[in-house]
Amino acid sequence: MAPRRAAIQLDLRDNVATALVALAAGETVALDTLSVTLAADIPSGHKFALRPIAKDESVIKYGQPIGRATKPIAPGEHVHVHNVVSQRAVGQS
Predict the structure, then answer these.
(1) Does the pLDDT at position 79 exceed 50?
(2) 74: which strand partners?
(3) All residues at 6 or more sequence positions from 17 whose CB lies less than 8 Å from its CB, including other chains
(4) Are 7 and 17 in contact (CB under 8 A)?
(5) Is residue 74 assigned to a domain?
(6) pLDDT band at residue 3, thresholds of 50, 70 and 90?
(7) Does any domain span residue 92?
(8) What pLDDT, on a 0 to 100 scale, did the predictor assign at position 93?
(9) How far is CA 20 from CA 10, 58, 75, in A?
(10) Can you give the pLDDT at residue 87?
């Protein structure tokens, strides 16, 4: 039986991955093309940065922008409402 994956990068263009289980700070997560050491605890279902994301840079998931970084985000950092503003429903009435 293959080992259970800890996280998934949905598209090679993504700059975030999604934790499939709760992950601990300091843990190194191996993905298909890279590995990242986590800077923070990441709850299951939450995102973490795969590479540096600059302030105002798009957060990419599914190969598409889903939000914008409100401050610089280092690899392995938790990517959530404290450092990203969502692009969902922006400009829709």
Answers:
(1) yes
(2) none
(3) 7, 8, 9, 29, 31, 36, 47, 48, 50
(4) yes
(5) yes
(6) low
(7) no
(8) 42
(9) 12, 23, 18
(10) 78
Distances (CA, A) of 35 to 27, 48, 65: 10, 12, 22
Contact of 84 with 67, CB cutoff 8 Å: yes
- Number of structural domains, the chain? 1
Which residue type is seen at 38?
Answer: L
Q: Report the mean per-residue pLDDT for the chain.
A: 91
Domain assignment present for 28:
yes
3-state secondary structure the chain: CCCCCCEECCCCCCCEEEECCCECCCCEEECCCCEEECCCCECCCCEEECCCECCCCEEEECCEEEEEECCCECCCCEECCCCEEECCCCCCC
Question: Residues 13-58: pLDDT tens digits?
Answer: 999 999 999 999 999 999 988 999 999 999 999 999 999 999 999 9
Sequence-distant (≥ 6) Cβ neighbours of residue 70 within 8 angstroms: 55, 83, 84, 85
